[in-house]
Amino acid sequence: MLKQIKSDIYHLLHPKMAFFLTSIGKDKKPNVMTCAWATPVSEEPPIVIVCVAKEAYTAELIKKTKEFVINIPTKKFLKELWICGKISGRDTDKFKKSGLKIKKAKKVKPTVIDGCAGYIECRLLKTVEAGECYAFFGSVVSAYADDKYMRDGLWFEDAGIPLHLGGSRIVYAKKK
Q1: Among 35, 47, 50, 154, which is least packed, fewest CB within 10 Å?
Q2: Are 68 and 113 a contacting pair, CB within 8 Å?
Q3: pLDDT tens readout for residues 162-174
Q4: Residue 68 has pLDDT above 90, yes or no
Q5: Buried-state track 63-86, b at ≥16 Cβ within 10 A, e below 16
Q6: What is the pLDDT of residues 81-136, one digit of tens each?
Q7: At CA 85, angle to CA 82 and CA 91, rounded to 5?
Q8: Which residues contact residue 129 at a Cβ distance below 8 angstroms, ignoring those fewer than 6 apart?
């Protein structure tokens, strides 16, 4: 029997990859948040969208500096994903609190998180108001991944990429 869904309709589109979204302030201070709302929207040219709550510090920084990075973690970053998803970087240094290490990105000012499986560096093309969120359209200026997690441009099934089901539930793909 089909059941009417009245709230959390977006859960019908989950699981979604959980990732770290990094941004930077005008003061060069790096910021990170946990996010799961991203999708590619164009292959040529490569464009992605990330959706961030309007009141989030990350949204403020992306609007000001016009750049962001999608950092794709593995299972080993589960604790850090929860830490960076529960507190604001406005008043807390999430890198210090979580122990995440940063490196210089290849083509944008926001840093990348050391040890992630992959990275998508973006420059802001357009911002669209989408309910309680901003949809940030990012032009991909650099994308790279650790080949121990990918083959022929696809993630290994057992790469340990976290998939957010909703709420506090994370799952991982695995081979049969």
Answers
A1: 154
A2: no
A3: 999 888 889 998 8
A4: yes
A5: eebbbbbbbbbbeebeebbebbbe
A6: 999 999 888 989 999 999 999 999 999 999 999 999 999 999 999 999 999 999 99
A7: 120
A8: 54, 135
Identify which of 79, 66, 83 has the alpha carbon closest to the alpha carbon of residue 139: 66
Q: What is d(CA 37, CA 39) in angstroms, rounded to the nearest whole number?
A: 7
Please give the CATH topology (third level) of the domain spanning 15-167: Pnp Oxidase; Chain A (2.30.110)
Tokens of 46: 């490569």
β-bridge mates for residue 69, sequence order = 22, 121
Is the pLDDT higher at 110 or at 14? Answer: 110
CA distance 165 to 13: 9
CA–CA separation, 176 vs 168, rounded Å? 25
